Structure formats: structure tokens, C-alpha cells
Amino acid sequence: MTDILSWIDVGPVANIPRQGARTLQTETDRIAIFRTLDDQVYALLDRCPHKQGPLAQGIVHGHFVTCPLHNMVFSLETGEAQGPDDGCAAKVECKIVNGTVRVGLTELQAGLRHAG
Ligand code: FES
User: Fold this and answer.
1) pLDDT higher than threshold 60 for residue 1
2) Alpha-carbon span 67 to 59, nearest angstrom
3) In ligand 1, which atom is closest to the CA atom of 70?
4) For residue range 28-37, what is the model confidence (pLDDT) as tens digits?
5) Within-domain flag for 29
6) What is the pLDDT of residue 113?
7) Of 50, 80, 86, best ligand 1 pocket probe by most atoms within 8 Å of the beta carbon
8) Is 11 inside any structural domain?
9) Least crowded by CB within 10 Å, which of 10, 17, 31, 88?
10) What mean pLDDT, rounded, does the chain reach?
11) Is the beta carbon of 67 within 6 A of some atom in ligand 1?
């Protein structure tokens, strides 16, 4: 797993509807942040591994999301495609701290570079 450079506050968990998502645009990626019916939060890159579908616009059910374009189902916990489909959506670290959702960005996502 890539090292986390920084944790970004993306607001109260209550701002994400249950069984819904919001997105976070970083320097390099758009991240989909999902909230489940049981108030867990997960994050994946907002780019389906099949044909780049916007996973944030998918349907959240249990701890899974169904891509809005061709209905592939991905685990929110692992990013892995379910059933007979192959593929894995890129997982992004995400947690709730005192009611606030935090997303862990890698150095590249944070858009930071080391000099020299
Ligand atoms: S783009 Fe997601 S299933 Fe095809």
C-alpha cells in the first residue's frame, strides 16, 4: 500500500447521505466517498476499472456499489469486483474522526513534490 502523506478533512459524515456519496477532487484524481446505511464510510477512486464510470453516481447497497454504466458491483471494503467480473476499483484510505470524514491522500494525490 502506498504511504499516506496527509489526511484531509472533507466535512461531517452527516453531509454524505446514507447510501450515497460525494466526491473530492485532488491534484491528480477524483475520489468517491461513500456512506453506507450503517454509517460506515469508504473511499474509492471515482473511476470504474471497466470503462471509467463515475462510481460516486452508482447505487450503494450494503457495503457495495454498483457502477452506473454497466452494473459491475464492487466491494467498498476492498474495491474488488464481485461475481464473475474481474477488476478492482482503487481503494483510498478513509475514516471518521469525531464525526468528521478524513481521506488519506498519497503524495501524488496531494499534488506535493519533494525538491531535488
Ligand atoms: S464503466 Fe463501470 S461497469 Fe462499465
Assistant:
1) no
2) 7
3) 3
4) 899 999 999 9
5) yes
6) 54
7) 50
8) no
9) 17
10) 92
11) yes
Q: How far is the CA of 24 from the centre of ligand 1 (A)?
A: 20
pTM (predicted TM-score): 0.92
Q: How far is the CA of 108 from the centre of ligand 1 (A)?
A: 25
Domain with 62, as residue range(s), is: 18-110
pLDDT at 12 over 60: yes
Ligand 1 atom nearest the C-alpha of 67 is 2
In tens, the pLDDT along 33-67 reads 999 999 999 999 999 999 999 999 999 999 999 99
49-76 in b/e form (b: 16+ CB < 10 A) is bbeebbbbebebeeebbbbeeeebbbbb
CATH number assigned to the domain comprising residue 94: 2.102.10.10
Task: For ligand 1, say whether the CB of 89 is within 6 Å of any of its atoms.
Answer: no
